Amino acid sequence: MSDNAMPEQKNAKNIILAALLLVVLAGIFIVIWLTTKPKTEAGGKTITVSVIGLDGEVAEHSITTDEEFLADALREAKLIDGVDSGLGFMVTSVDGVTADDSKEQWWKLTVGGEFSEYGASDLPIKDGGRYEWTLTEGWEW
Known about the structure:
Number of domains: 2
Distance between the termini: 60 Å
Mean pLDDT: 87
Number of strands: 8
Radius of gyration: 23 Å
Number of helices: 2
CATH class of the largest domain: Mainly Beta
Helix content: 25-40%
Shape: elongated
CATH architecture of the largest domain: Beta Complex
Order of helices and strands: HEEHEEEEEE
Structural class: alpha+beta
């Protein structure tokens, strides 16, 4: 009987240690996320949004908003449309132009000409910020 008790105690200790390790790692992850997440700016902001079509034609939009994230500001201005997903807001249409999946079209988001690290729903906007949506053809993976 004592032979069976020893392995059970070892298993219980291993489970407890694994659970404690998981809690510590989760805590570290939360601290890192809180210290590195993008900061938002409260209050009124005016931003410029450029919409660039396949032909290179550019339409500029000046938007004034109290929203803190780009997707919210652009939905409020009725400039974008799309669907909410587990990955955030997936933009399918910008300024009335819908990307055609059958032609591998998609809307690329850039900030000051640089590819955005964040999707529109996670991208904090800043007063005076410039954001570009470019209709792109061909998957870039």
